[in-house]
Amino acid sequence: MRNYKIPTLTIAGSDSSGGAGVQADLKTFSAIGTYGMSVITAITAQNTMGVFDVEELSRNIIKEQMKAVFEDIMPKAVKIGMVSSPEIILEIVDNLKKYKPETIVVDPVMISKSGYSLLRPEAKENLIKYLIPIAYLITPNVPEAEEITGMKIETVEDMKKAGKKILDLGPKYVLVKGGHLDGDAVDVLMGEDTFEVFTSERLDRKNTHGTGCTLSSAITSHIALGYDVVEAVRRSKKYITEAIRHSFDIGHGVGPVNHFYKFEGLIFSK
Question: What is the pLDDT of residues 128-172, one digit of tens each?
């Protein structure tokens, strides 16, 4: 944990059950070994069985949270998750342009695992027009990539085509996650001079709440620690695979991954 003094920031919604959102991001930052900070954009009422209500925070409190963090502890890398309204997206983009963090990772959260919409339809335009172009990396899953590009994705070749379309919007890199397709878990990383296909075994586990949040936060942490984007994704893929493998039953629905699987069995003394 010698790198724990390296600060990372999540800008996202709160998950009251702790499995996704800001809570998953902060657990991931800690597990990877960076110092986690947060700007909360919305409060969700959710648990392992679903999302039941969402209340967005005001532009002003989001602005003040960002000011408080950036003017005191400049993050080495920033992860952006749930940004549900057009106004919130504009506020975040304005402040990111003001403070100019080195690395911005965008996880374009649109729909929860239980099917609850976390991005207003009218916000999609601002996401595409203003937030995606300033990203160092964007990490859409297949349904999110379909929403962004307007194309149907059924194969790895389709993922590559979608990735090219998303790159044309302005980010430096795009990681299209293929977990929603059949077969092995295949993710495609693309950049101007980068093309990597990451294949990992598909684990038969029901407890996968917060996987997207966890992966994007792991990538953010690894980039903050100095790894290039390819190695950051490779290490983060390994981390999320093991976190899923060690997932556990808690609650009555889809439980969380195990963010701290690496520390199981350790005895902490005073």
Answer: 999 999 999 999 999 999 999 999 999 989 999 999 999 999 999
What is the per-residue pLDDT across 229-238, written as a single tens digit (0 to 9) for each? Answer: 999 999 999 9
Cα separation, 126 vs 93, in Å, equals 10
Please tell me the distance from the alpha carbon of residue 251 to that of residue 209, in angstroms, as a whole number.
Answer: 11
Measured distance CA(270)–CA(103) in Å, rounded: 37
The rounded distance, in Å, linking the Cα atoms of 127 and 219 is 20
Residues 45, 13: contact at Cβ < 8 Å? no
Helices (H), the chain: 21-32, 59-70, 86-99, 124-126, 142-149, 156-167, 211-224, 229-245
Distance CA 70, CA 98 (A): 10
Task: Judge whether residue 270 has pLDDT over 60.
Answer: no
Average pLDDT for 61-87: 97
Q: Which amino acid is residue 211, in one-letter code?
A: T
The structure's pTM equals 0.95
Closest to 257 measured CA to CA, from 197, 179, 198: 179
List, as one string, the DSSP characters of 213-270. Answer: HHHHHHHHHHHHTT--HHHHHHHHHHHHHHHHHT----SSSS-B--TTGGGTT-----
- Paired strand residues for 185: 200
Rounded to the nearest 10°, the torsion over CA 12, 56, 150, 111 is 70
Distance CA 150, CA 139 (A): 16
- What is the tens place of the pLDDT at every residue in 185-213? 799 999 999 999 998 888 888 999 999 99
Q: How far is CA 54 from CA 46, 57, 85, 116, in A?
A: 9, 10, 12, 10
Show which residues are catalytic. 177, 208, 210-213
